[in-house]
Amino acid sequence: MREFFGLSKLKEGGYTFLRQAEGAWSWQHLTLVACLMALMVALACILGRKYKGKPLPQANIVLVACAVLINAFEVIKIVVLCIRTENVWHWLYVLPLFLCSVQLIAIPMAALCKGRTKEACLDFVLTFGILGAVFGTIGATQNYNAYPVLSMDNVFSGVTHSISGFASLYIAISGLTSLKWKNFPITLGVLCGVSVIAYIANIILDYNYMFLMYHDGTPYSIFYNMVNGHKVLYPLVVVGIFVVYLALFYYVYNLIREKKNIAKN
Questions:
Q1: How far apart are CA 163 and CA 243, in angstroms?
Q2: SS3 8
Q3: Which residue in 257, 242, 235, 146 sits closest to 189, CA to CA?
Q4: What pTM does this model have?
Q5: Positive or negative CA dihedral for 218, 239, 72, 69?
């Protein structure tokens, strides 16, 4: 267990892993994420169909469970990282300011809020949950190059990202989503607000929340190289891509819904 949590004590001081990282795209990496994705989709289909058409309080039970689980895993990880780094302030570098970790706040709000706020949070989880699940597991090459596959860093990250993806699929399959254009400004405001806070935190902490400062080995490297790592253009491009993705998601969903309504009539 010490090795799983990266708490093996070194003679010269500090904690780390004694094992070597298997690396991104290794069979260990692909096996873990394949299992997580399969479980995520299977549970979303089973529970989504079970609670489809059910009263909102019943359907909310699954989202409440997601909120509890995703935050429990994150709290455990933060505590272990503070112990591993021997720095009580390490939590400043694991704030929910990555696009995928915003789900730590968005999923509880989607489960517990009411009215348009609830609808906007459901839309946010639906739109970005599945995206974060894919990029945070399959595409998290930086993690799999740095840590062993069977470690807290990769397993917990894979589980939390998969919970986000599960919540996204569950919302879609159970029919909880609305994706009404009138709620688009609220969802957009959440996205832009988090982006601004993340950028400010990056400057203060010299960090890379939402990968707004550097691609860090992620697929964002495509856009980073396109603008030669420009300190202003790169973060604007990244946020711009998020906004375009969000707008396209709303547009395509509503287009499909309109065609279905026409076909029914």
A1: 23
A2: strand
A3: 242
A4: 0.90
A5: negative
* Amino acid making up residue 39: L
The answer to whether residues 190 and 107 touch, using CB atoms and an 8 Å cutoff, is no
Segments in the chain forming alpha helices (H) = 27-51, 56-85, 103-112, 115-137, 141-146, 152-174, 184-205, 221-226, 233-264
The radius of gyration computed from the CA coordinates of the chain, to the nearest angstrom, equals: 19
203-213 pLDDT tens trace: 999 999 999 99
Task: Look at residue 11 in the predicted model and tell me its pLDDT.
Answer: 66
What is the spatial distance between Cα 99 and Cα 26, in angstroms, rounded to a whole number?
A: 26
| Per-residue model confidence (pLDDT) at position 216 | 83
**β-strands 8-9, 15-16 pairing:** antiparallel
How far apart (Å, rounded) are the C-alpha atoms in residues 67 and 69? Answer: 6
How far lies 140's CA from each of 32, 180, 215, in Å? 12, 32, 11
Q: What is the pLDDT of residues 53-102, one digit of tens each?
A: 999 999 999 999 999 999 999 999 999 999 998 899 999 999 999 988 99
